[in-house]
Amino acid sequence: MNRKEKEIETKRRLMEATEAVFSRRGFAQATVDEIIALADTGKGTLYKYFGNKDNVFYTLVSHKHSELMERMWSVADDTEKSVEERMADILAVWIEFLRKNTVLWQVLCFEMTCTNRGFSGVEDENGEVRLVSRWGKLPPPEEQEGILRYHRLLAEENKPILKVYEEGIRQNLFCEMAQHKDIAVHMFLAVAMIVFFHSSGDIEKISARDFAANFVKTRLYGLIRHNNEL
Questions:
Q1: How many C-beta atoms surround the C-beta of residue 2 within 10 A?
Q2: How far, CA to CA in Å, does 145 sit from each of 61, 129, 131, 181, 186?
Q3: HEC states along 193-230?
Q4: pLDDT tens digits, residue range 100-151?
C-alpha cells in the first residue's frame, strides 16, 4: 500500500469511527480519544486531516448530506411524476435517511446549530443564511461561521420538496389558502420531528414509502383544488 492509499484508508477509518462515536454519544460527550482509539490511529493524524472535533463531525455530516441531496434532487427533477407523487417520494427518501442517521441528525439539528443557545439561521430572499439571536448575544464572527455552516446544510435540505411544491402552485394545483411555499417546508420539518421523537413502536413498522404517501395525502387534504374549482 503506497502513501496515498494509506492516507485514504486512514481517513476512511476515521470517518467510520467518527460516525460510530457520535451516533452513540452525541457531540458534547464524544471525545477525540474515543475516535482515534476506534480508528486505530493517533491524535496528531486526526488533527492533521481535520483540525479539530468539530471539523471531523462536519466532514462526516456534509458527506452524508451530499448523498441525501443527490437522491432528493433526482426525485424532484422527475417531471414524469405528479407533484403529489414527487413530494411523497422525496419524503420517503428523507424518512429512510433519518431512520439510518437519527442521532447524527439530532446532533446536527439541536447541538451544532446552537438552538439551545438561542441562535437561529434565517434565510433571506437571496438564499443567504445569517445567524440571529432569540436571546443573549451572538458569538464572535469566527464562531458564527462555524455554526452557520450547519444551518446552511439544513436550509439546503428542504429545497427539493420546496421546488416541487412551487411547481404545484404555478400549476394552480392548490387552493388559495395553500399557495404559500412555507407549507412544504413545514411538512418536511414535521416528518423529521416525527422520526426523531417517535423512533420506536408501531410507526417504525410502517415502510418509509407508505409513511410518506399517507403523510402527503393527509397533509394536502383540503389544499388541492377540486375539478369544479379549476
A1: 7
A2: 16, 10, 9, 27, 26
A3: HHHHHCCCCHHHHCCHHHHHHHHHHHHHCCCECCHHHC
A4: 999 999 999 999 999 989 999 999 988 899 999 999 899 999 999 999 999 9
One DSSP character per residue, the chain reads --HHHHHHHHHHHHHHHHHHHHHHHTTTT--HHHHHHHHTS-HHHHHHHHSSHHHHHHHHHHHHHHHHHHHHHHHHT-TTS-HHHHHHHHHHHHHHHHHHSHHHHHIIIIIIT-GGGTEEEEE-TTS-EEEEESSSPPPPHHHHHHHHHHHHHHHHHTHHHHHHHHHHHHTT-B-GGG--THHHHHHHHHHHHHHHH--SSGGGGS-HHHHHHHHHHHHHTTTBPPGGG-
| Cell matching residue 209 | 414509502
Q: What is the CA radius of gyration of the chain?
A: 20
Whole-prediction pTM:
0.92
212: phi then psi, degrees, rounded to nearest 5:
-65, -45
Contact 215, 90 (CB under 8 A): no
Residue 35 in contact with residue 14, Cβ under 8 Å? yes
Q: Which three cell numbers stand for residue 73?
A: 434532487
